[in-house]
Amino acid sequence: MRAERCASTSFDYVIVGGGPGGLVMANRLSSNPNTSVAVIEAGDSVFDDPNVKGVGAYGLWVGSSVYWNYTSAPQKYTSNRQLDILGGRALGGTTVINGMTYLRAEKEQINAWEKLGNEGWNWDGLWPYYLKEEGFHIPTDEQVRQGATFETEAHNLDGHVAVGWSSYFNQQNVSTIFRETSEALGFPFNKDANDGRMRGYTVWPQTLNATDDIRADAARSYYYPVAHSRPNLHVFLNTTAMRVKWDYNKDEVVARGVEVTSLPNRIEIIEAKREVILSAGSIRTPALLEHSGVGNPALLSALGINTTLPLPSVGARLADQPNILVAYSTPTNWTGYPTFVTYVTASDLFGSELPSLADEVYANISTYASTIIADLTPNSTTLKMVETSLRIQADLMFDKDSTVPVAEILWASTGNVLAVPFWNLLPFSRGEIHISSADPLQPPAINANFFQLKIDTYVNAAAAILIRKAFSTPPLSSHATAEAIPSFATVPAEAGFRDERWAEWIKAVYTSNNHPVATCGMRSRELGGVVDSNGKVFGTKNVRIVDASVMPMQISGHLSATVYALAEKIADGMLRGGNGTTI
Ligand SMILES: Cc1cc2nc3c(=O)[nH]c(=O)nc-3n(C[C@H](O)[C@H](O)[C@H](O)COP(=O)(O)OP(=O)(O)OC[C@H]3O[C@@H](n4cnc5c(N)ncnc54)[C@H](O)[C@@H]3O)c2cc1C
Question: At which positions is FAD bound (predicted)?
Answer without folding.
Answer: 94
